[in-house]
């Protein structure tokens, strides 16, 4: 595999990992909201979600409803 192909391959792997982590965190947020009866902001506080990620998860979970 040449260097360019390797970079593209690794970028795809990294994107897949990031997507998987985001899906897992979204599921954790939903579970906290349901189990502990907390708001989305409280769930993200519990999970120590960085401020720059919060709107992403709010938008993602709003699409699922």
Helix content: over 70%
Q: What is the number of helices?
A: 3
What does the overall shape look like? elongated
Q: Secondary-structure element sequence?
A: HHH
Structural overview:
The chain is an all-alpha fold. It has a domain of 29 residues. It is built from three helices and no strands. Helix 1 packs across helix 2. The termini are far apart. The model has no long low-confidence stretch (mean pLDDT 86).
Structure at a glance:
Helices cover 83% and strands 0% of the residues.
Which terms summarize this structure?
65 residues, mainly alpha, elongated
List the helices and strands and how they pair.
Blueprint: H1 3-35, H2 40-46, H3 51-64
Helix pairs in contact: 1-2
Organism: Phascolarctobacterium succinatutens YIT 12067
Protein name: Transposase
């Amino acid at each position: 595999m040449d260097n360019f192909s390797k970079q593209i391959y690794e970028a795809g792997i990294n994107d897949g990992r990031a997507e998987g982590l985001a899906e897992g965190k979204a599921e954790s947020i939903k579970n906290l909201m349901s189990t502990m009866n907390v708001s989305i902001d409280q769930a993200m506080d519990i999970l120590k979600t960085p401020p720059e990620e919060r709107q992403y998860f709010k938008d993602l979970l709003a699409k699922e409803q």
